[in-house]
Amino acid sequence: MIGSKVRLDPSQTGQEADALRARLRKYVIGQDEAVAEIVNIYQMHLIGMTAPGRPVGNLLLIGPTGSGKTRIVEATAEALVGNASAVVKVDCAEFQHSHEIAKLIGSPPGYLGHRETHPLLSQENLDRHHTEHCTVSFVLFDEIEKASDALWNLLLGILDKASLTLGDNRRVDFSRAMIFLTGNLGAAEMSAILSPKMGFYAGGPPHRNGDADGSITGKISAAAMHAARRKFTPEFLNRLDKIVVFKPLGEAELKNILEIELAVVQQRIHQSQAYTPFTLGLTARAKDILLQEGTDPRYGARHLKRAIDRMLVHPLANIMATHQVRCGDLVRVDVEEGTGHLVFLREAGNAPTGDAPSSPIAPLAAVCAAREAGACEATNQGAGAE
């Protein structure tokens, strides 16, 4: 019909962007705003709508420690190129003095170490992990607030013109790079909001009740934004596409992260070549103990990971090293009455149950069969050699 109008929906994204969103939500819990910004930037890149002469995206990620700022960068690389280590990471704590900038761009001709210093921000390092389907590089400036003025000046050119000149006058093109800057700006203010020394919040800290009304999350965001404006100059802030404030993780998010971490532990058990694989299952009480020991509003999920290593992974390593389990067993982790300590129980030949962590790995029976076949083949080859 001539002259008819059809309402368009700009909230829809393409198939590849939807796939990226789904993968990021598997890896990163409770940070939907950050996921949405990365997906939008990637969608613009795919369509070719990125501003010419600028990086694919410039994002400043700030928020409480342990909330997933560095993890989301690694997750983006893992989702797009299949490798979480495909990130050029600059630890800004190592660049607090101007002379250390030579490690990033190399020493100029005539200076000591000109030929020996290999610049970190070289074109080769940026393009190293490109694949046939994804030619985006991922550059992370971690703890940006600790950087020296020399690094700040370096960043202004990268963020604005997507270009960097190395010590030997070679130019590096950042027009196909996602630039991430992370920081713990306003950490003292955030800590005061999460754990006030005087007074109390009626609803309790966000990791206990999820901050249903969003008041604590709003105060965290306001404190982080104020700290960013206090630290960064207007010319720097104008070069950023978005400042994303990471929310403190609530109880529900920590439970989801616990399941992800348990699945990672299960995968490591199955992939261990030195010992027989088995299935790991935790009761609800055991998971609660891990959450109680690993929950701290100041450290977020980072504290939870340490609790899993200390209370679960280290004992399992001892059990595996002393051959107390066989291939196909179920090791159930429960809580000992009276002491509150974790206890490990072997159930021979049991199939995985509902309290076993789910993970995208091969079935245990197939893993055991492959191990046995490999062992038999090695034995037969040894007998033939004799």
Task: Outline the structure in words.
This protein is 45% helix and 13% strand. With 386 residues, the protein is α/β, with parallel strands linked by helices. It folds into two domains: 15-249, Rossmann fold (3-Layer(aba) Sandwich); 252-378, Helicase, Ruva Protein, domain 3, CATH 1.10.8. The strands form three sheets. Strands 2-3-6-1-7 form a five-stranded parallel sheet, sandwiched between helices. It has a three-stranded mixed sheet with strand order 8-9-10. Strands 4-5 form a two-stranded antiparallel ribbon. Strand 9 (330-335) and strand 10 (342-347) form a beta hairpin. Helix 7 (187-194) runs antiparallel to helix 9. The longest helix is centred in the last third of the chain and has 22 residues, at 364-385. The N and C termini lie far apart (86 Å). Residues 198-210 and 358-362 have low confidence and may be disordered.
